[in-house]
Design a protein that fits this description.
The complex is a heterodimer of chains A (about 325) and B (about 220).
Chain A: H1 9-15, E1 20-25, H2 34-43, E2 49-52, H3 64-73, E3 78-83, H4 89-101, E4 106-110, H5 137-150, E5 166-171, H6 181-191, E6 195-200, H7 204-216, H8 219-222, E7 224-230, H9 235-244, H10 252-260, H11 264-280, E8 287-291, H12 299-305
Parallel strand pairs in A: 1-2, 1-8, 2-3, 3-4, 4-5, 5-6, 6-7, 7-8
Chain B: E1 2-6, H1 9-15, E2 21-27, H2 30-33, H3 39-55, E3 61-67, H4 77-83, E4 88-91, H5 95-104, E5 110-112, E6 114-124, E7 127-132, H6 148-151, H7 179-189
Parallel strand pairs in B: 2-3, 2-4, 4-5
Antiparallel strand pairs in B: 1-6, 6-7
Classes of the chains: A alpha/beta (about 325), B alpha/beta (about 220).
Chain lengths: ~325, ~220
């Protein structure tokens, strides 16, 4: 086994060539750790690592650092997400050192939803907030890599010792301008990404073409790519994602299947299983990032049925 | 140009409460170009405000003038006499002109009549869009003449985020182009997509407002 950057379970599973599984746990909109613990109890042992989102859709939630630490205390391995929206490079590096001190080792750098997102208009949010975007997600990857590999801050000052991180990035393979998306992936990997979790993919042909391009450029050798799958629960949800979630392309055939299904939930699970199978067949897909937004209780059954249990011991 | 737009009439009316003699001053430069504070807008706004205040039972005499440029002291002589006879001045210039106005006639109150919004271009009649953020560290040479600092909602320097809509517009505003989509298209058209493959390091924001108020000194001109 090659030298590990942070020796997290996720890194070990991926490095061992096992098909990895990550799922997402969104922190609650409140100060109580119990909801995080409950989700942890529901999902323990099902995945290799658990993403903890950073104020997704620009709505204030418990911080990803705190959420990740609660998971860690419950015996789950977190992936702490960090967006560029709310913190400048000083705060981000400080939080990264703090996260490292707390034992958090997987970190995922993303641009972050704009502060106007406000949960897609479902909540007030804080559209009048001052956005930061001091550095972008690719620059954040470089910064994290600097803390890890050179023990040096972005400004050039040293830190007392390297901060070991397994560094992740997001990828929207099918977002316009689609001809640039593989280049952007390459930039993320060049900047420091060890693993990649993608925006939800439903159009496996189109995604397969993008992944093949990445594969041809050797990118799948340099970083582990985990395609994202969001469990569909209704035709309306798929329609919404197809129309309103940038970078998500849903084939009409899948929407029609959900529309005609007598039991949409069962059909959604069936589609999810087919998508997981399709991902497993793609050269260069190192695992899958599975999300069941506000329906995490569906995950145990899906993961079982997909033959992804038990998770490898590494 | 520097763009501005009228403050809401209610806000202007309430800022004029209690005044009987006010001078409303436009500026014939940028704010005239963007139809917020030129001679025409001064002549439109004065009767609007007079009527709105009359409705509330307040009599007001609004005198009007338009300076060639409110950001240059030499143009202020024209209104010195009128300024001496009013209780306040409402300025329709950008924030720069307004501050010089406040300084020129200190301690006469200066009431802002517009909100200064952007460094922009008139894209088509009735539409102005941002072109510059005055970041003090121009990147246009690397982005094919299209500014991601001012025209990307996240000021991204390494390409588009995941929020580009299917039609190439920005996730933040369905009527605004994703500037990175345009940059990529221009690079592609010039056969130079490779130029965007290099990772651009964090920007030095100290040359912008983030470094504190700018003091640009040219010793050869002092």
């Amino acid at each position: 086994m090659k030298n590990l950057n942070a020796a997290t379970k996720l890194e070990k599973v991926l490095t061992a060539g096992e098909f990895a599984l990550t799922v997402e746990i969104g922190p609650p909109r409140g100060p109580n750790p119990e909801p995080v613990r409950q989700k942890a109890a529901l999902l323990a042992g099902l995945a290799d690592a658990y993403n903890v989102t950073d104020n997704q859709t620009a709505v204030v939630r418990m911080s990803s650092i705190a959420g990740a630490k609660i998971l860690l205390d419950q015996g789950l391995e977190p992936v702490m997400q960090m967006t560029c929206r709310d913190r400048n490079r000083i705060a981000m590096q400080s939080d990264l050192l703090g996260a490292s001190a707390l034992g958090l080792r997987n970190v995922l750098a993303i641009s972050g939803d704009h502060q106007s997102a406000s949960a897609g208009g479902k909540l007030n949010g804080h559209p009048g907030a001052k956005s930061v975007f001091d550095i972008d997600s690719i620059q954040l990857l470089s910064v994290i890599k600097g803390l890890r590999d050179q023990a040096v801050q972005a400004g050039g000052d040293s830190i007392t010792e390297p901060a070991p991180f397994f560094i992740g990035a997001a990828w929207t393979p099918l977002g316009p301008p689609v001809e640039f998306r593989v280049t952007r992936l390459a930039k993320k990997i060049a900047a420091g990404a060890d693993f990649i979790q993608t925006q939800a993919v439903y159009d496996m042909d189109a995604f397969g073409r993008q992944l093949a391009l990445a594969h041809d450029q050797g990118l799948t050798e340099k970083a582990f790519i985990l395609p994202g799958i969001i469990v569909p629960r209704s035709a309306g949800m798929l329609n919404y994602m197809n129309r309103s979630v940038p970078g998500v392309v849903v084939p009409q055939e899948l929407i029609d299947r959900m529309k005609q299904a007598s039991d949409p939930q069962a059909e959604g699970i069936k589609i999810t299983l087919e998508l997981i199978e399709a991902v497993r067949a793609l050269p260069g897909a190192a695992g899958v990032h599975l999300q069941a937004i506000e329906a995490e209780e569906l995950l145990p059954e899906i993961i079982e049925a997909a033959g992804l249990r038990p998770r490898p011991e590494v | 140009m520097i763009t501005a737009e009228w403050k809401p009439i209610e806000e202007l009316v309430s800022s004029l409460a209690g005044y009987r003699n006010v001078l409303l001053v436009g500026c014939a430069t940028c704010v005239a170009e963007c139809a917020a504070g030129g001679e025409r807008e001064v002549q439109t706004l004065a009767p609007l405000l007079t009527m709105a205040l009359a409705k509330q039972g307040q009599e007001i005499n609004i005198r009007t003038a338009t300076l060639e440029r409110q950001c240059e002291p030499e143009f202020y002589d024209d209104i010195a006499e009128a300024a001496a006879e009013v209780e306040a001045i409402m300025s329709l210039a950008c924030g720069i002109g307004m501050q010089l106005m406040a300084e020129q006639f200190d301690p006469l109150p200066m009431l802002p009549g517009v909100n200064t919004t952007s460094l922009a271009i008139r894209e088509e009649p009735g539409l102005w869009t941002t072109r510059c953020a005055a970041c003090g560290d121009c990147v246009l040479g690397e982005t094919f003449g299209l500014c991601p600092v001012s025209r990307c909602a996240k000021s991204l320097l390494n390409g588009p985020c995941g929020g580009t809509r299917e039609n190439g517009k920005c996730e933040v505003d369905p009527d605004t182009d994703c500037i990175w989509r345009l940059i990529v298209e221009r690079a592609t058209a010039r056969g130079r997509l490779d130029a965007l493959a290099t990772v651009r390091q964090p920007k030095d924001w100290s040359h912008s407002q983030h470094g504190g108020p700018m003091r640009m000194v040219r010793e050869d001109l002092r």
